[in-house]
Amino acid sequence: MINSDVIQAANAKAVDRLEADYAALGAHLDRRGIDIAAIKAKVAKYGVAIPSWGVGTGGTRFARFPGSGEPRDIFDKLDDCGVIHQLTTATPSVSLHIPWDAQPAADLNSKAEEVGLTFDAMNSNTFQDQPDQTHSYKFGSLSHTDAATRQQAVHHNIACIELGAQIGSKALTIWVGDGSNFPGQTNFTRQFERYLDATRQVYDTLPDDWTLLTEHKMYEPAFYSTVVQDWGTNLLIAQQLGDKAKCLVDLGHHAPNVNIEMIVARLTQFGKLGGFHFNDSKYGDDDLDTGSIDPYRLFLVFNELVEAESNPDFNPMHMLDQSHNVTDPIESLMVSAMEVQRAYAQALLVDRAALEGYQDSNDALMATTTLKDGFRTNVEPILAMARLEKGGAIDPVAAYRASRYRAQVSEDRPAVSGAGGGIV
Ligand SMILES: [Mn+2]
């Protein structure tokens, strides 16, 4: 963790300016009939989970260029996640990936407590082979033609639930790379039947207070067809399995220009929106930093989430899922967490009564302007003040750089090889 003196010294340099900006924004919002303190209170309560794999440098199919002080194991990763939460106060939980992060539950729990974090959804991995595994996933896992291979994948998912239950997790996220690379390679229907049958076996072992999240992805690693390729397939799975099964929407897992915010609205309307993986993209599943390319789309997604907030049963899980190839992952994750918070705060500012009036009277111009008023408001003083009041940093990146955390951990963590493709 970072010495609190460093955070306080960094905050001391910025606090006068923040207080002036916060007061000015408060006066501006007051004229719009918005109580800045109420918005700040909601922002302060908001949290997005960090994926354990996000704190390592990512890579592409071509190469990986690791930075210094890469985390060696889940305990180093939890240290890094602890720093992200310490500075941003916006990332209270970590999502584990099994088997990469498999360790005894007691050790995971004590480390999480030490760094002030809890555990979010468990993520299973049946898209690559592990050294000790009997059956290969080269031709699929939960949908494989071979029953023993499917069973191995089912057992792995159940093991993820069992570990998760010991560390306070309440959800399992299943993403499979199953699909095909050639027309005719698989029978779409029989393959999906096998997937549903195997996934139901996992679902049947789920504790009552757990959620099973299935994540669709349009392509990659299979490039012709993917078993869970779109939100329609994902919804069918959730409907087939039952009430504890819901859909996870990864922003990058759609074709370019797909109206993701409308998918969010549809899944919400029928109680099947289970969670998010936030990231951004320009061309495909780019795994770029959240809000770095199209912050307006992120805002439009949050507009749907705020719209649904009045339903007490609506509580989707929020996680970042992105690949950091050219930045310090800690810095990227801090900025991304703040971008998610920013979109939430902007969506809270939308005058929903006015918007509804314009929608009902078919005033398209005023409806879209009213919506965009939220996006155009610079809410940074709200986010920064929420962080300051919770003991975080006014400017997390500045405080992180001042702390020299990366240089310090690099002394203990040996340099790792950059050879080979990274995992995205
Ligand atoms: Mn994802």
UniProtKB/TrEMBL annotation:
<keyword id="KW-0464">Manganese</keyword>
<dbReference type="InterPro" id="IPR036237">
    <property type="entry name" value="Xyl_isomerase-like_sf"/>
</dbReference>
<keyword id="KW-0413">Isomerase</keyword>
<feature type="domain" description="Xylose isomerase-like TIM barrel">
    <location>
        <begin position="93"/>
        <end position="287"/>
    </location>
</feature>
<protein>
    <submittedName>
        <fullName>L-rhamnose catabolism isomerase</fullName>
    </submittedName>
</protein>
<dbReference type="InterPro" id="IPR050337">
    <property type="entry name" value="L-rhamnose_isomerase"/>
</dbReference>
<dbReference type="Pfam" id="PF01261">
    <property type="entry name" value="AP_endonuc_2"/>
</dbReference>
<keyword id="KW-0479">Metal-binding</keyword>
<dbReference type="InterPro" id="IPR013022">
    <property type="entry name" value="Xyl_isomerase-like_TIM-brl"/>
</dbReference>
<dbReference type="InterPro" id="IPR013451">
    <property type="entry name" value="L_rhamnose_iso"/>
</dbReference>
<dbReference type="GO" id="GO:0016853">
    <property type="term" value="F:isomerase activity"/>
</dbReference>
